Structure formats: structure tokens, C-alpha cells
From TrEMBL:
<feature type="domain" description="HTH gntR-type">
    <location>
        <begin position="57"/>
        <end position="126"/>
    </location>
</feature>
<keyword id="KW-0238">DNA-binding</keyword>
<dbReference type="Pfam" id="PF07729">
    <property type="entry name" value="FCD"/>
</dbReference>
<dbReference type="GO" id="GO:0003677">
    <property type="term" value="F:DNA binding"/>
</dbReference>
<dbReference type="InterPro" id="IPR036390">
    <property type="entry name" value="WH_DNA-bd_sf"/>
</dbReference>
<keyword id="KW-0805">Transcription regulation</keyword>
<dbReference type="InterPro" id="IPR036388">
    <property type="entry name" value="WH-like_DNA-bd_sf"/>
</dbReference>
<dbReference type="GO" id="GO:0003700">
    <property type="term" value="F:DNA-binding transcription factor activity"/>
</dbReference>
<protein>
    <submittedName>
        <fullName>FCD domain protein</fullName>
    </submittedName>
</protein>
<keyword id="KW-0804">Transcription</keyword>
<dbReference type="InterPro" id="IPR008920">
    <property type="entry name" value="TF_FadR/GntR_C"/>
</dbReference>
<dbReference type="InterPro" id="IPR000524">
    <property type="entry name" value="Tscrpt_reg_HTH_GntR"/>
</dbReference>
<dbReference type="InterPro" id="IPR011711">
    <property type="entry name" value="GntR_C"/>
</dbReference>
<dbReference type="Pfam" id="PF00392">
    <property type="entry name" value="GntR"/>
</dbReference>
């Protein structure tokens, strides 16, 4: 996913950022210490730190631009091993020691991954990295179960019109089979079918960025949602099954409003159930 994302960036965007930064850097370089910090008192130590930071930022932008170019012209693909640090240094006319921290930063963001052999490769999927970050934020209470459900609701409501527009090209029988499994299966089968239905919905939108983000946040509140489903009464489970079937029916008969309304109702029930379990207070959200 990161490789595809980078390769699809508009050329003028990365070029503009890189060129503008280079111009700014060169002007400051020409102006010297006094030109760059006119009206300020800076010592040699502060100036060297500032210059080092500017160099690092400039090198980072240059490497990103080169990555984008190689992805667009087919020299690099997702999963490919990247050139060595020495090759990058020669290609960008910078020192080898300046390349390493840039690659490490890209690894930390999930754009690159390091193999067992120590080789840097372009990641095919950055959802794992995103999931780890969100889990940490969740554990230190920066993200609540309510906020995660809000995000899922917003994404599915955004994705559904895309799914609706593509409905004639989709395998709706796959969705129907999951609906039957949810309604007539045992507890574990219903939980699995519910997960697969929501994954199907995002994937069917055709938006790979949405799919990547949803994959990253899925496990954050799936445990709570699965707990709700496992503890729910048969009446509630059948109610949710009916809501899911409305989503399927809306695609079959071409009723967008029906599907959007069903999704809203589905998440209203989930969020109320989370509140009933004291996982968050609805009154505190208002």
C-alpha cells in the first residue's frame, strides 16, 4: 500500500515541495548566518544544529522524490528490495551516513520494512504499523472505543456510496452467504460473519486507502463488538441480521437511502451497547 500511495502522488506535489524547500535552503545558505537569522542572536552551536536539521529535511525530501519517480517509471514495486545505502548516497550526491536515518524513519512509518537479511524493502501493506500505533494510543487512553466506532461509522458511510455505484460489478452472492451465516450460524460463526461483512463492504468500495486504514483500526474495538455479539440476546442478533439484510437488499434493488439508513442504525445499536457496558458515557460525548 505505501508503495502504491507514493507512486500515485501527483508529480507536481512532491516536486513542488522539494524545489521550494531547496530554494529556501539555498537562499538561507547564500545569506549566511546573518541573512538566515536577521534580527536574532545565534551562536555557532545553534547555527550548526539548524544547518544540520535543514540538511536532513532536504535529503529526506530528495529521497522521497526519487522513490516516487522510481515507483512511477516501474523501476521499483511494492515488495522490492531497495538499493543499498551507498547507492542512494551516490544517486542523491549525499553522504552515506545521511541516508541511514532517512531509511530508518521510513521504516518506522511503515513505508519500508527490514528483512531478516537486513535488506530494506518497500512495504506492501502498512496497516500493521498503523494498528500498532493505534493500539498504543488506545492503551494510554488517547483513543476511546466510542471514537473508534465513530471512525468506523464514518468510513463505512463514506464507502457505501462507492459500493453502491459499483454494485453491478460486485459478487453480491458472497455478501448473501455471509448474511445467512450470520443469521443461522452459531455464536462464533455469527461473529466471524459480521467481521467479514464489514471487511467486504470496505473492500467492495474499491478504495485501497480506506481498506488499509480500516484494516489498521479494525482490531482496536473488534473485541468489544465481538463481546456485544456474543452476549447479545437472540432477539438482538436477529435485529442486527435484519439490518445487514437491508444493506444487501439496497444493493440488489438500487436503494441507496435504505443502505445508508441501515448502516446508521447498526452503529447506533453498537454504540449504545458499548455505553451500556460502561465503556464510555454517552452524556459526556454530547
Amino acid at each position: 500500500m505505501p508503495a502504491e500511495f507514493l507512486s500515485n502522488l501527483p508529480k507536481n506535489l512532491t516536486t513542488h515541495l522539494t524545489t521550494s524547500f531547496a530554494r529556501c535552503f539555498l537562499k538561507e545558505k547564500e545569506g549566511g548566518m546573518h541573512g538566515a537569522f536577521r534580527g536574532k542572536t545565534w551562536g555557532n552551536t545553534e547555527y550548526r544544529r539548524w544547518r544540520k536539521m535543514k540538511n536532513q529535511q532536504y535529503h529526506y525530501l530528495c529521497l522521497i522524490e526519487e522513490l516516487r519517480k522510481r515507483l512511477q517509471n516501474g523501476q521499483l514495486h511494492a515488495g522490492d528490495v531497495l538499493p543499498s545505502e551507498q547507492e542512494w548516497a551516490e544517486a542523491l550526491s549525499i553522504k552515506k551516513r545521511d541516508v541511514r536515518p532517512i531509511l530508518k524513519n521510513l521504516e518506522m512509518t511503515g513505508v519500508l520494512s527490514c528483512s531478516k537479511e537486513g535488506e530494506m524493502t518497500l512495504s506492501k501493506d502498512m496497516s500493521d504499523s498503523m494498528e500498532e500505533l493505534l493500539h498504543v494510543m488506545f492503551l494510554i487512553q488517547k483513543i476511546s472505543p466510542y471514537e473508534v466506532c465513530q471512525m468506523r461509522r464514518a468510513m463505512e458511510l463514506s464507502a457505501f456510496p462507492m459500493v453502491f455505484a459499483r454494485r453491478e460489478r460486485l459478487d453480491l452472492d458472497e455478501l448473501k452467504n455471509l448474511l445467512d451465516e450470520f443469521r443461522y450460524g452459531n455464536g462464533l460463526d455469527s461473529i466471524r460473519a459480521d467481521e467479514e461483512m464489514h471487511r467486504w463492504l470496505i473492500k467492495a468500495s474499491g478504495n485501497r486507502l480506506m481498506e488499509c486504514v480500516m484494516q489498521g483500526i479494525w482490531d482496536i474495538c473488534s473485541a468489544q463488538i465481538n463481546l456485544i455479539l456474543s452476549d447479545s440476546t437472540e432477539k438482538l442478533r436477529q435485529k442486527q441480521a435484519t439490518i445487514h439484510e437491508k444493506i444487501y437488499k439496497s444493493l440488489m434493488i438500487g436503494d441507496l437511502k435504505m443502505g445508508m439508513g441501515a448502516l446508521q442504525t447498526h452503529y447506533d445499536i453498537i454504540e449504545q451497547a458499548l455505553a451500556d457496558q460502561s465503556l464510555y458515557d454517552l452524556s459526556s460525548i454530547a
